[in-house]
């Protein structure tokens, strides 16, 4: 199957964004030159598609500090039942708020009627998310309010949370790690 890509120019305090598509659906959205870029195949054809136009409009609204009133059509490949649960929960995190990996783990444990779910397993599923921002993995933080583990880079996570009017001084910003 042919895959297509498009580069979205972000505001100055963010890295630019790469969008990917199968021709009909958005299949990837990630910050250029980030850890997330390594999760996507390299063989794309650059092409302007209507899904890229719709996604760019969504991003324009979002980066203007507003909440878009629509969601582009997305398709997530290789979605396991566990990843699907985590993504479903991430999609419910309201603009301008954060939850912890542990909050998501506890919610899944309750849904599955089990005593405990691993926050680390949740972290793996959050980090796997191929469509950042629209599926707001940047709104998931460590239990100690650490801005840890963002594949798009801590600089971008911090800027996204600031855009959403969160007081960034309340968070711990890691100084080392592979996803800074």
> Helix and strand string, N-terminal first?
EEEEHHEHHEH
User: In angstroms, what separates the terminal alpha carbons?
Assistant: 33 Å
Radius of gyration: 16 Å
In terms of per-residue confidence, which ranges show pLDDT below 50 for 5 or more consecutive residues? none
Q: Please describe the biggest sheet, giving its number of strands, its sense, and whether it closes into a barrel.
A: 4 strands, mixed
Spatial sequence of strands, sheet with the most strands: 3-2-1-4
Query: Whole-number average pLDDT?
Result: 90
Helix content: 25-40%
The helix/strand class is alpha/beta
Please outline what is shown here.
This protein has helices at 50-63, 81-90, 101-112, 119-128, 154-163; strands at 4-8, 17-21, 26-31, 45-46, 99-100, 140-141. By secondary structure, it is of the alpha/beta class.
What can you tell me about this protein's structure?
This protein is an alpha/beta fold and 180 residues long. The chain is built from five helices and six strands. Strand 2 and strand 3 form a beta hairpin. The longest helix has 14 residues, at 50-63. It is globular, with a radius of gyration of 16 Å. The relative contact order is 0.15.
């Amino acid at each position: 199957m042919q895959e297509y890509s498009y580069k979205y120019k972000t505001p100055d305090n963010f890295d630019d964004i790469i969008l990917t598509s199968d021709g009909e659906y958005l299949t990837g959205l990630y910050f250029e030159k980030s850890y997330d870029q390594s999760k996507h195949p390299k063989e794309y054809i650059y092409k302007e598609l209507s899904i890229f136009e719709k996604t760019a409009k969504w991003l324009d609204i979002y980066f203007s500090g507003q909440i878009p009133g629509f969601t582009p059509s997305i398709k997530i490949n290789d979605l396991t039942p566990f990843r699907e649960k985590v993504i479903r929960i991430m999609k419910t995190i309201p603009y301008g708020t954060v939850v912890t990996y542990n909050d998501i783990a506890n919610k899944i444990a309750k849904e599955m009627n089990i005593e405990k779910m691993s926050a680390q397993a949740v972290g793996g599923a959050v980090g796997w998310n191929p469509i950042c921002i629209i599926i707001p993995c940047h709104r998931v933080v460590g239990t100690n309010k650490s801005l840890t583990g963002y594949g798009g880079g801590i600089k971008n996570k911090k800027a996204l949370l600031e855009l959403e009017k969160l007081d960034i001084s309340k968070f711990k910003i890691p100084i080392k790690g592979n996803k800074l």
